[in-house]
Amino acid sequence: MEICAAADIHYPRFGHKWAVALADGMCDSGADVIVLAGDISAGPDSRYHRFLELFAGFSGPKLFIPGNHDLWSDVDSPSTSSRYEASLQRIAEDNGFHYLPHNPIAVADVGFAGTVGWCDYSFRQLTPPVPDLRVTPMLPAREDLTTKLLPIDGRDNVPWEELTTEDYAAQALVWTTDGHRENLIWNDAIYVDWHAPDEVVAQELAAELREDARRIADEVRILVGVSHFVPFEEILDEPSDDVAYAYCRAYMGSSLLGDAFLSMPNLALVLCGHHHRRKVLQHGNMIVANCSVATTSARSSSLFPRTDPNDPEAARDRRVQPRRARPHPHLREAHQIADRRRTARATVRRDELPSPDGAPGRR
Ligand SMILES: [Fe+2]
Ligand SMILES: [Fe+2]
Q: What is the rounded CA–CA span in Å between residue 51 and residue 170?
């Protein structure tokens, strides 16, 4: 079976022509199954319909997993759960996509189970990006269509090594570089509200994934897992000396998610996105592929959510904006890849089954 997967399209950030080329490339790839692994777009439903209808000509199964940007809701009435449980499923199904959360599916003898996943700060960078760096965690708050950063009692100018999970839960940081004050907000703090701490969300979604896999496992020979957030730390880069990049590492994923995948019997392949660096790893006999296509538009993409000039919701938020990551060496290489190859492809072969104990190795 051939699977053609992409994540982090962020339509229409890279333009409609780019999106058409991507969709055409995926539809014409010869794959048996298409997987979209999150961050398809953000904002009005019309954007989703405009992009997803580009896949109308593909006759095989098309699977949809949301990303954090797909969960972004109006800041005045965040309703993340209803968007995840209902709205996005309706949008996907209206366009012929199978909505994977809570709905594992068997395609021939291959089972697919998936979740958006979430972060629990387990991948945070413990070593300071800059020696002796001191930072101030802050709490973002909306006020009159702008975002303000509120101080947190007793957390002013703390050593990087002393950042706590509560500091990361606040999701904003202030620091000084060469005498200049810099700040960063992880925008999920503003646009996502699960009504539960991130760690609890990560735990519950991982538990749901295990249950989905259990439901489908007996019907199939091998399993493919799909998430938007990163399940294995090895997918991320080495510790960074860039403060913004180092900080956002905490929001990339969860080891609980990885543990849930590794508990699946006969797991052959895991697909994810979210970290905008395409990467494929071998875990024993299992393949882990970050199929982010934002990687290939390096000049206009970064690790961080970026303000879309055409997005009125984002435009209101320009007063405090996330800082862009420095270009990464991998991205220059990725530039050379042609439009129609802007997909991550993986082949699940019968000879790539996990070892008999069903437990691919982890670092
Ligand atoms: Fe993304
Ligand atoms: Fe994402």
A: 33
